[in-house]
Amino acid sequence: MTAGQTATFTVVASGTAPLAYQWQKNGANITGATAASYTTPATTTSDSGSTFAVVVSNTAGTVTSASATLTVNPAPVAPTITTQPGNQTVTAGQTATFTVVATGTAPLGYQWQKNGANIAGATAASYTTPATTISDSGSAFRVVVTNTAGTVTSSAATLTVNPAPVAPTITTQPGNQAVTAGQTATFTVVATGTAPLGYQWQKNGANITGDSGELHDTSDNDFGQRVGVRGGGDEHSGDGDEQCSDTDGESGAGSADDHEPAGESDGDGRTDGHVHGGGDGDRAARLPVAEERGQHRGGDLSELHDPGNDDGGQRVSVLGGGDEHGEHGDEQCGDTDGEPGASACYSG
Q1: Strand, coil or helix: what is 236?
Q2: What CATH superfamily classification does 80-162 receive?
Q3: Does the pTM of the predicted model rise above 0.70?
């Protein structure tokens, strides 16, 4: 029996009447228990294992019954959920598993539900869905736990199903580009697929790394292109500091970091690649000269021009020299020394 209930013991005896009865618990007489049956008070788990017997007597003799054992079971405890099912996120085609942890008097029964409807065969502490589809996304799963003492329903867990990832597909290929030496070229691709998409551009099959330096290291084929630095100065502030994006408020040549990329027009009426003189007399525009094929070019052009106040807006161009650039270097610069090398031209 269960704790809190009573137990009744009964004996049947024959003999010359009157018959007398005395019930005993664990060998000791029970006060007032003098009938053919005996009902205990409400039992507790401490009564479990006790033995009960009865002594029957009359004027002719006495007999003692066999002992009966009392077993008292704990009172059943209604189920309690200690761990609720958790939300699950999967990719379409995968399965999702929901689990509950409950306590209470065994046996416990389980019934899982999807959107409030019982799921056939889902009667364990965990439930695994079939392969999911996008239509399953947003569904709510819960479980009802029962035993002889009661019933409890878990909170609902939500299933989120994400679309299966799609490999990238290029919808618009990069197009061929034709530019004039010194200009930049822009290549663009349009691709679709599951985000995020990663891009790595290549030149002639080799990855192109980001250019984070302040200056561009030209190659042999780039020699002869022009790099621009605009000078500042009080009398040329409109074309100096402002055009160079020099916002330090100081008069003088703007920083090389501030100039627009070579070959691009920024609205000053000139294509970048020209050097415009600045003011104050002590500013100098400097441009490094690259080496070509391991041979140093003739002429030290590290100090191209010391622009003074009177040179504002004038241009200095650097053209490639050497045998292969002679007609564009020495001749265009008016250099008639006949020696190959880089020539510096100054035009007023």
Answers
A1: helix
A2: Immunoglobulins (2.60.40.10)
A3: no
